[in-house]
Amino acid sequence: MGIWLVGNSNNTIIWTANRDDPPVNSKATLNLTEDDKLLLRTKEGKEKLIANSTMAAAFASMLDSGNFVVYNNNSDFIWESFSFPTDTILVGQILLEDGELVSSLSESDQSSGRFDLNMQLVGNLVLYPADTAHAPGDAYWSTGTFANGSHLYLNDSTGFLSLQMNIDNFLSTVFSSSSSINKDANKVIYRATLDVDGVFRLYSHAYFRNTKPKITMEKSAIDNACAVKSICGFNSYCTFNDDKPY
Questions:
Q1: Digits of tens for pLDDT over the chain (246 positions)?
Q2: Radius of gyration of the chain (CA)
Q3: Of the candidates 36, 39, 37, which has an alpha carbon nearest to the alpha carbon of residue 47?
Q4: Rounded to an integer, what distance in angstroms lies between the CA atom of residue 211 and that of residue 68?
Q5: Which of 58, 70, 86, 64 lies closest to 2, judged by CA?
Q6: Dihedral of the CA atoms 158, 161, 163, 169 (nearest 10)?
Q7: Which of 27, 34, 104, 205 is 20 to 30 A distant from 187 in Cα terms?
Q8: What is the pLDDT of residue 177?
Q9: CB-based contacts of 129, cutoff 8 Å, min separation 6
Q10: Listed residue (188, 123, 190, 118) closest to 151, CA to CA
């Protein structure tokens, strides 16, 4: 089960449930059961819990924000995909302190990959190879900010990605979009993704009438992908071929 941005031949996956489980048959179904659970049920009858909540689920909704939300009988939300990001945060979404994004293994395999982005308790946003102890020497990029209780927030209208103490207490800019690029678009959706190559990037998806959406990489935490530790393997020499490290 996943969520993706539609509009072109290669839909952009922005969230995956149980991403490290084996893939299921296309005949698998999503079920809200009589005992108030949201389950993925395979053709063979195997079941996997999607929304892990102690409260009974009454209905679910896919919101325009990209957030998949489960509600109880009082229409209070009891679970949301926004609280469990994989490799991407969307507009209006928050990466809380001690939260993380983990890159996908490849463009076609959404299971956990080789790099992670940590929102540390001390307020520093840091990139690491996933298979390290996350010691200071393992990091290959950080914001260098220190304020307990900080979180990462992507503004819902401008694509302004920032570290904040709360909604009114700005701490530091991480990325800001080039607003002039999409000034004629009917709608623009922003996302910040930790890509498979270990680079954290800000993208815009601009939607125009009668044309395919335009996807633009607006900002990148690292300009030289060879600066990503372990991208080319242990004790290797990194160089470029077709703008990709190898």
A1: 899 988 766 789 999 999 999 888 888 998 888 777 888 988 888 888 888 787 888 899 999 999 999 998 999 989 999 999 999 999 989 999 999 999 999 998 999 999 999 999 999 999 999 999 999 999 999 999 888 888 998 886 678 888 887 656 777 888 887 656 667 778 888 999 999 999 999 999 888 887 788 888 999 999 888 889 877 665 566 666 656 665
A2: 19
A3: 39
A4: 27
A5: 86
A6: 0
A7: 104
A8: 77
A9: 114, 115, 138, 140, 198, 229, 230
A10: 123
- Measured in Å, how far apart are the chain's first and last C-alpha atoms? 32
Q: Which amino acid is at 165?
A: M
Tokens of 99: 């939260």
In whole angstroms, give the CA distance from residue 65 to residue 166. Answer: 20
Q: Identify the DSSP state of 22.
A: P
**Interatomic CA distance for residues 241 and 166, integer angstroms:** 43
Dihedral, CA atoms, 228, 120, 82, 109, nearest 10 degrees? Answer: 30
Query: Which residue's entry shows tokens 């004790």?
Result: 235
CA distance 146 to 150: 8
**Beta-carbon count within 10 A of 202 CB:** 23
